[in-house]
Write a structure and sequence with these properties.
Rossmann fold, 7-stranded mixed β-sheet, globular, 28% helix, 27% strand, 359 residues, 16 strands, 9 helices, alpha/beta, single chain
Length: 359
Amino acid sequence: MEKYIHFLTNILLAHRGRGSGEIVVQNLSRIRNIGITAHIDAGKTTLTERILFYTKRIHKIGEVDDGSATMDYMPQEQERGITITSAATTFNWKDHEIHLIDTPGHVDFTIEVERCLRVLDGVVAVLCAVGGVEPQTETVWHQAERYNVPKIVFINKLDRVGANFQRAVSMLRERLGAHPVPIQIPMMAGDECLGVVDLIRMKGVIWDQASQGSEHQYIDIPSQYLEESEEAQRFMLESAAEMDEELTDYYLEHEKLDEKQIIRGLRLGTISNRIVPTLCGSALKNLGVQPVIDAVIDFLPSPLDVPPVVGINPATGIQEQRFPKSKDPLCAFAFKVMMDQGRKATYVRIYSGELQVEK
C-alpha cells in the first residue's frame, strides 16, 4: 500500500482504488507527505493557494482577505481570515504526487499542528520577511524537531516595506539554532522585489504578472546582484559538499559542484536535519512559488527516506517496526476526526498493509 495520507469518509477507507478517481502511485519515491507551517499572518494560506493554482488543482486563485481561500473552508476561517483547523489536499507536480496539509498559525490551535506533524515526512516553514522568526514559528519549529521532521524555509512577503531577507536568515540561525542554507537570494530594488537569484543554476528568475505568475523566465544575473550571488553560492556549495565525503573530495579538487551534485548534497543534509534549504519570494505577488514546489521534490523525503514506524503490537505487547509494504500487517494512525456535511470524516496515515472498501 502506498505510504501517504488518505482522506477517509464514514468508514475507514484506506484505499479508494482506481475506480474512484484517486491516482494510485506505484513508485513510493515519487510521493511527498508535507505540511505548511507558520506564525499567523506569515502568508501560509496564500502560499498554499498559489501552489494549488500553479499545479492546476484549482482554476482560480482565492484570497484570504475576501474569504475565498480554498483551504480555509470553515465559515469562521473565512470570516476572520485565519486558519483554524488543518486541511488536507493532493496535487501532482513533475511526475510526483504531493499530499499537503495546511496547518493553523494561531497559537490557540497549535494542537492541530502537533497532530499533523506526527504523520508528516517534511515541512515547509513560512516566515514573514519583516517579522522573521516569531513566537509561533519557534513553537512549530520545536514541534517538528520533536518528531525529527526535515524542513525547508520560504521567506515570504518580500513585497512589504521593511522586508529584510538576510535578517530573517540570521534569526533562523540565532533563535532556532538552525543551519539555513539559502538556495536563492532576492533581487530587491528599494522595497520592491523584482525576482530571485537561483544559486543552484546561477540565474535570475522573474515572473510574469500578466499570467498571475504562471509564467517565469531565467535571465542573466544583473550586475548589481552578482557579487552577493557569488558569495551566497560559495556558502551553499560548501554546505552541500560537507554532507557527503565523496562530494567533499570532489569540491576540494575542483572547487565546484554541478547541479545534480548540489541537489544531492542538500537533500542528504535536509533529510538528516543538518541543514535547512531556504527560499524567498512573495506569494501574494506571485513571486517564487514554483521553486518551493521544486524544493519539496528535490529536498524533502519520500516515504522510503524516513525510518520505519515503531509501535507496540496490541496482540503481543512487543515493540515492532513497520515498513511501507502492502504485504506487511496493517499499521495506521488516525490523526483527525471531523464532521463534514453531517458525515464523520477521518484522516488516516497508512504506514503498512491495506484497508479495503467495505462492500
